[in-house]
Amino acid sequence: MVQPLRDYVLLEKVPDEKKVGKIILATANENESALATVVAIGPGYTDSDGKKVEVIVKVGQKVIYKKYATTDYEEDGRKLMLVQDKDILAIVK
């Protein structure tokens, strides 16, 4: 498993699905959502004042991220993404 450094967060994309009757279709297009689950987080970083800045999100949370701010990574058939903490826009509750 990958361990993110500094303020990076490892995400796993939540698959987009559409229901047609009782059939669920997975979608893959440009309009897909930017929803993912947090898989791992980095330890944070030290700012210019020497103050420790921790990552805001926690493992297991669902988040919305900036779509074009990711670095894609694949491990054991899982499609994962690395993003900086600042590129996570919201926590989905």
Could you characterize what this model shows?
It is a single chain. The chain has strands spanning 8-13, 17-20, 23-26, 35-41, 45-46, 52-53, 62-65, 71-75, 78-84, 88-92. It has one domain (8-92): 10 Kd Chaperonin, Protein Cpn10, Chain O. The mean pLDDT is 86. By secondary structure, the protein is mainly beta. The strands form three sheets. A six-stranded antiparallel sheet has the order 8-9-1-4-7-10, with no helix packed on it. A two-stranded antiparallel ribbon has the order 2-3.
Number of helices: 0
Low-confidence stretches: none
Total beta strand runs? 10
Order of helices and strands: EEEEEEEEEE
Short characterization:
The protein is mostly beta strands. It has strands spanning 8-13, 17-20, 23-26, 35-41, 45-46, 52-53, 62-65, 71-75, 78-84, 88-92.
Q: What secondary-structure arrangement, pairings included, does this model have?
A:
Layout: E1 8-13, E2 17-20, E3 23-26, E4 35-41, E5 45-46, E6 52-53, E7 62-65, E8 71-75, E9 78-84, E10 88-92
Antiparallel strand pairs: 1-4, 1-9, 2-3, 4-7, 5-6, 7-10, 8-9
Keyphrases for this structure?
single chain, 93 residues, mainly beta, 10 Kd Chaperonin, Protein Cpn10, Chain O, 6-stranded antiparallel sheet, two-stranded antiparallel sheet
